């Protein structure tokens, strides 16, 4: 581990100024991912600007009934918040499905969004990786890719985004607020993550030095009946091999509203717009749920060892939507 | 002079009663010091640099820039390191150059140690090590273990590599039912909590090593061989050990620390990182196994063949004796067991958690289940019909074979009676449910050990023995054994362990530790009691006797000595998502005299948890392109999490052997044997699909699906 400087920021303006002044600086939230990557040499910041003490740790109801979640709210506090559990259970479930109790106590909302892929080639500095070292190649395509992307990947990178929380936020049109030296800004979560293309090292659309200050979930009554289900290779403390955030509103057996997002299938949380479009107005039954999943997964380009994810995601969509439909019918 | 009253011989024994760990308070309060925790004046820190290439030669080690970095004291590599002997005779296992670091420019595998950077602080050493430029002449590597490797060959280990009798083809042809299947298990790692760590210092030509190992006199003898020293000039201490599982013998870090301490003439500590452990501390080789079984309509085995293949490195010939379970469990008219190895460009494998039996029992006990299915015979009944009276290979009688009792008691408690044998018919919501069983056996051996026992003037007793408590509770067990042998209460007995100065003793390995050490302690106690009976006065510096079991071991009659067990598992499988959850496990064992039920149960449950983890999770993925591991850390190498581990119950039946002077059989490994097969058999019962390749991952379950019942 290399030596690095450390500064604790007292306010948002100060934090942004510190980063603006130092191209080698990085924000430090919970450190649960960044510090690991510093130990393995993947990240080598010259200075850390600690933002944990900034007054960004509140969760508030917005005037229109949405939720504004501060960037330094811990994952544990987010999952436990009564309004989050009431208004968007999928978000609470997604957060609780991730990491471990200790990690969730440290990890922040902003950091969760910006965590790096767990692709084993990215994490190993002795291996090529286009995300870590542009132009060096992507060994996963010919090598180990059982848990890599089936949607939206490119020949340059097939890594997946590891966050559970971001999948749930993505299903409900979250908006990310940030601050730069030039002032505040906003980005829909859908636009936060850049397409992989031939630049997998460029991951987000945030301006340089931007500090995420909050994430806002707009009011969505459908979110109150939402669910997050995650499949992984052990029952806890593992990243998803496939996950679904979903919400469903059914009237007279017909889908009135639906939200669907996939995790562990792409370089970003994957909002399943094609499946949603296919479902609205159609009967709420397994056959149509499966057809909707197929509509989304038609774009899948699996590799030899991750083709199972297409089946897994189809089955998950059917299972989760069927559960939600049965609950609604009760 | 004082006189020590001994308790009358009629007093109740400590052995067999639950006793918390004698060092438990020290451990939970942090007072117990582990190998990397001893403060020492003048201590320097070494950091290993390991190879990025999987095969080749080191062209250059650019030490100049690194030596100029802050705090750096030395860079050891093949060009400047002290020379070692590698032709010495070893206490256990075949000729091994795995730990003989920096002796040549050849790189035998990815992750091979190529240099040690020593600095004033661990941070400086690490930064310098990560900055060290090493260039290689890279050669193409070969890491593919497949069933058809033409260079596969057998070797004889502590047991023969091959046993055979009868005409297999003829018996298979005459069988009413035949199973012929290939099974595989992946590369697995020990993954103990405490990383390997050693601190070495030299004084007047004598080496002192603070270490974490499974046998201080074993590591002492290995170091004596490598450094051409008299073992008496080496002291190895290892009092507290955070897990070993077969991995904590002599490794690169002790040798590198000893070299650096000699070169720098100051104490040097080397601690391995988790990633380094994945290439430097051994592993269980992947196995490719083929089992052929043939039986008559009544289930009697006519043919049993078990062939296994494992990889080894090019610096050590390690045979994973996965074919051995059938040598003990089942007889057949034609019977062949054969284990072979193939050297590849991989790190040296080693003993891990029931070497041989753990992977071998997965294949054999899965095949038995397949045979039961074909014959329409209950899996327990099939095993009971093939319970031999004598060793199938040796022809020797068994010194206690209570496998049938384990199955009967297990079946009763698990609720096996009335089990519907049809697969894929039990559904509970999204889950398909199934149950499975498997047999287990593990050898009950012993190794020569010495112990000393001192009657102290204050009425207490001190045992000194170079035993290793790797978390098993061995130290507590020895306390109880000594108390009973002396006929005093345990609080009057102090057991000191983990110091080669106490004299030669068996390692904590092969489930032989407690049996071997107890033997020596009991012999010393007998001698001491006789001495005290003759002359009860104790001198001011105590009265000490010594015992050596070497001769006594030789007088034991020739018999098949094993622990046995019956494993049961119930699983739930969601075929849509591939998730497998074990709902409960039960293991009933016949393992001789159980010294401390508290720690014994813990060991057995721990072993069964390993088995669950082996069945569903554990798998080190070796990358074909680079030859090293993909995700070689505890995020990538999944062991069962708490949420995966259900209610696991372990218990035992009476298993006396009046002929045996100690009666203890050892329980370190039997718990994992058969456990993975019981889970896999339960997955078949749930889904109707056989999983012959471990681990039973979600992608495999999704691909396999379930029968449409």
TrEMBL record, chain A:
Protein name: Xanthine dehydrogenase family protein subunit M
Pfam families in UniProt: CO_deh_flav_C (PF03450), FAD_binding_5 (PF00941)
Superkingdom of this protein's organism: Bacteria
Span of domain FAD-binding PCMH-type: 1-222
SUPFAM superfamilies, alphabetized: CO dehydrogenase flavoprotein C-terminal domain-like, FAD-binding/transporter-associated domain-like
Gene3D superfamilies, sorted: 3.30.465.10, CO dehydrogenase flavoprotein, C-terminal domain, Uridine Diphospho-n-acetylenolpyruvylglucosamine Reductase, domain 2
Keyword annotations from UniProtKB, A to Z: Oxidoreductase
Automatic annotation (TrEMBL), chain B:
A Pfam family the protein falls into: Ald_Xan_dh_C
Ubl conjugation is among the record's keywords: no
UniProt keyword Transport, yes or no: no
Lineage, opening ranks: Bacteria, Bacillati, Actinomycetota, Actinomycetes, Kitasatosporales
Keywords noted in UniProt: Molybdenum, Oxidoreductase
Protein name (record): Xanthine dehydrogenase family protein molybdopterin-binding subunit
Transmembrane segments: none
Originating organism: Streptomyces composti
Top-level taxon of the source organism: Bacteria
Listed SMART domains: Ald_Xan_dh_C
Domain Aldehyde oxidase/xanthine dehydrogenase a/b hammerhead: start-end pairs: 29-140
